[in-house]
Amino acid sequence: MNIKLLQENISRALTHITRVVPSKPQLPVLQNLKLTATTEGLEITATNMETTETIWVGGKVEKEGSVCVSARVLFEFVASLPPDTVHLYMREEQLYVSCAGFEAELPTVSASEFPSPPALLPKETGSVDKEMFTSALSSVLFAAATDEGRPMLTGVKVIEDDGKTTFVATDGYRLSLCKVPLLINKLSGAIIPAKALLEVVKLSGEDKTEKMIQVGVAGEHQAGFVVGETTLLTRLLDGEYPGFERIIPKSFTTRALIEKEGLLRAVRSAAIFARDNANIIKLTLDKQRIIVSANAAQTGKNSIELSAKIDGDGGEIAFNSRFLLDFLTNFPEDEFLFEMTGSLNSGVFKPAKSDNYLHIIMPVRVTS
Q1: Residue 69 CA to chain centroid, in angstroms?
Q2: Are residues 140 and 177 in contact, defined by beta-carbon separation less than 8 angstroms?
Q3: Containing H/E element for 11?
Q4: Host domain of residue 234
Q5: Residue 24 covered by a domain
Q6: CATH no. for residue 96?
Q7: Are residues 87 and 162 part of one domain?
Q8: Is 208 buried (19+), middle (13-18) or exposed (0-12) by CB count in 10 A?
Q9: Which of the ends of the chain has fewer CB neighbours closer than 10 A, N or C?
């Protein structure tokens, strides 16, 4: 291997791809990046056995080759280099990295020890609008579980129907559902790990030029995404997703039209006092106003009054403040509809002018 690249290009690629490198790998080789110099440039690959990411970086190749090297050491050393040409070359089983007077010698591992990812075949993929795709994912990903105790809930369910795709995520205490006019080729019914989809969203935000994302299947039981010069493959979750449809309320006794920023400020304020009381805050809906309150013996109590357009019976309901903050910070519109039926049934949050999204939060039972 012998290749020259611009420091800013390889540093940017390493910043992205090291997010996939596991902190506690199943195999020692997974602490490494696989570097492959081809006639067109450098391919950098990382994997944690569940998700594999490959980034292509353009460069001047003098000799092709492939090798594995420590992800942490290479990333940190390249980041310390000045903005000049970086020269990577092999000599006696060592990788030499030099740039403007800086030089390092890194031990290597044979590329044959690195797991080989499946190929993402063009015939198995389709292109989707990047902004619409990532916006839909951002509106549901925060509701997926992070606890591996229930693996299915750490994924996002994909459902295709009548020319639209629905994304669903739940951790058992809340649920987000978003429907968009996209067709995700051959992935209907799949459960895709939320961590991998979050990486796709990050890559999309960092790539300012591409307008489309390639989405499809790779090998057996894997999903693939191509964002610019980056390919991400992830193993699909295998199992039955919970029947979420049955927990979506079909009716309500109170509906309120609420301004998002006002409620967001109120919940942030109340959350200060809720920290010592299991993060519980109470919403009281009455006479075209909402009172947001929290009470903890050690901290004290507070209340904030907001105006809102309320129809129906009104009443009180309590939520975990963290769940409310997650919804409010990820909801893109200026106002939303909130629907409830008493204090013991789920609260439903919807856009005011469309039916393509809903978010459900289970209430907390509190004593008066």
Answers
A1: 27
A2: yes
A3: helix 7-17
A4: 122-245
A5: yes
A6: 3.10.150.10
A7: no
A8: exposed
A9: C
